[in-house]
Amino acid sequence: MQGNQTIFLVIQHADLQTQKEYLPVIEKAVQDNKTFPANLALLKDRMALREGKKQIYGSQIFIDSNTGKKYVQPLQNPEGVDKLRAEVGLPSMETYLQQSFQMDWNLKEYYKNLPEIEKLLEERKSAK
């Protein structure tokens, strides 16, 4: 599995076209128990955001370069995200954000900050 994990990380950080090309390979590897379902979830989140869609599993965080404030990038189903995460072997949003980013997960706060997050992401996209 270690070799597959290395290959996954290369694909996860590649450009969108490469990710699209290798998505079926990662899906097959999950079916064959050669990589973790969580890897596929992370890849799908990253690809969705790059395609201008909302992420499914809440794995992608945005850091405002002006304030240093951290945000969860837009989610398709914020209320059901923990159930979806559990299905692929990912910890709850609360655990993930606390351990990885020293952030708290609060659904009310997420919704309150969502317009600001979307505005910041749009500004970042326009600046490129």
Order of SSEs, N→C?
Answer: HHHEEHHH
Principal-axis shape = globular
Distance between the termini: 37 Å
Poorly predicted sequence stretches spanning 5 or more consecutive residues? none
The total count of strands amounts to 2
How would you state the average pLDDT, rounded? 91
**β-strand amount:** under 5%
Please state how the strands of the largest beta sheet are arranged side by side.
1-2
Count of separate structural domains: 2
SS field, number of helical segments: 6
- Main β-sheet, in a few words? 2 strands, antiparallel
| Rg over C-alpha atoms, rounded to the nearest angstrom | 15 Å
Structural class: mainly alpha
Q: What fraction, in percent, of the residue positions are helical?
A: 55-70%
Give a written overview of the molecule.
This protein has helices at residues 2-12, 16-31, 37-50, 81-87, 93-101, 107-127, and strands spanning 61-63, 70-72. With 128 residues, it is mostly helical. The protein has two domains: 2-50, no CATH class; 61-127, no CATH class. The longest helix has 21 residues, at 107-127. The model has no long low-confidence stretch (mean pLDDT 91).
